[in-house]
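so im writing up the methods section and need the Prolyl 4-hydroxylase subunit alpha-3 isoform X5 record in one place, dumping it here so i stop losing it
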Amino acid sequence: MPDESFGEMFTSMLSVNQAVSAERKLIDHLIIYIEHEAQRLEDIKRFFSRVTSLHDGIYNEPSDPIANPIAAFKLVKRLKSEWLNVVHSTEAEENIKVLREDYRRMESSLPKLEDLRGAAHGLMRLQDVYNLHVESLVRGHFQQISDPVDFYKLSVSDMLSGDDCFLVGKVAYDLEDYYHSVLWFEEAVRLFRGTEWSPENEGTLEDALDHLAFSHFKTGNISHALSLSRELLLHDPMNRRVHFNVEKYEKLLNENLPATSSGLTLKRPDGIYLRTRNAYEQLCQTKGSQPIRREIISLQPYVVLFHGFVTQAEAKNIRKYAMPGLRRSVVASGMNQATAEYRISKSAWLKESAHEVVGKLDQRITLVTGLNVQPPYAEYLQVVNYGIGGHYEPHFDHATSDSSPLYRLKTGNRVATIMIYLSPVQAGGSTAFIYANFSVPVVQNAALFWWNLHKNGQGNVDTLHAGCPVIVGNKWGMFKNKNFHKVTCTAVTNIVHPKIIILSSSTHSPLVQILFKFFSYVQHNRTYTEEWWKPLLYILYFDLYNGCQWLLFFNILQKILFCLHPKKETHKSLELF
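--- predicted struct ---
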């Protein structure tokens, strides 16, 4: 993959997986370094053994060992030459220089500081959205605060160290997010206590105590801040800054200021999606069920799930074709597009001309929706790979502002969306519809379809949805957005009889489904002569054939229903169609 694809590694699990290969190469370089160092130390041990054997042997003889001119010469040589070579050997520097050079050559493919921060945010996002207990998360378990049973059980778990927790807390601390920093620094302190510091660690017990004390101070918990600062002085008694803080905390407690007790409840910081946050997170926590092959998930908004929409081979090929083009996903920002913390993923666009499977999928989408999804009537297929805690917070697929980049591209607004799940996910990753109050779990190889706009072209607010954070798994999805130019439908090709319709291949078109239901309805309500509605049906045919004017289509159905059943309450049955 080109080097730029390695940027923002945390935003794509594909990039994280590539980091595994990078670390394997580093391990190979480290093995070589260890072998060279082992050989160097073996040489030093051999010199040590030779010198000590002389002092245990010849130099312990009753006779004067220096009387032997050969022994005297060798002693002088060792002290002037051999000891000098051992003490001033550059072999150690040369060995570490090679290791550093190997690391430098690989550095472009390794995580950056931004990736470390992004991965830490991913853990905090999982903690918040799924209401996970931090202590259990540190032990490698996904246990909710409200439920002692694991939300999801890993076949192989991994635990976080004190230094791991310190770095997560430090990311929150640097953003003045003391709610999260307190929770993670507490775990860091707990794990650092009673353990020896390791050279690969960035943090220490003293660092964790220092940051945790100040975090408690910023949340108003002065007594905890004082207790931790006093403990820190036991490890660093000459630290003048900490002595000053102790005096300050003692003074505040003596003044009996409010909000200084240890019984304070930490308050999670507000976010930009505070109004929908509770609903969003509750829906993400709903594991959902695996529906039948084709299921209408919701009528308002209209959401359908198609099982087995792509094959395993097709999904694998699409992932492979998308890999070279993966870049950090962007969102609309005024009249431009930009990256955002509320969308953590990488995406690539696939054109039909480049890959045969793309054309087949476009045809399949047309078959089940009746929509022309060929550019410029629709966007290209967008393949997305989510990162660590990868998510997309509540948003609309359609444009909600006249300044949206969609209108600048002159593609029209997004009428509908179809989302295809290209991989399984062990936990998390559901699609949550916030206002409609339901969520759909990831179903491998299935496709989720919904309308973004009402028939009048206005956006449907009930389509506000979110991609929940992925807890465990490598989530790949593919999106196709149908744009609003002139809505075209697969036409009725011939009418032999009012009750016999010969259709084209798109028998799953929404319009055709409505026709089928209508004919079924009129067949069971035969209070009419057979000829009167035939001209209206021909009008309906030409309406379909000439571009599908939706308002006229529904007006005709309504008139036919009214003539069949003029009672007012029968108008409600139109909703069934």
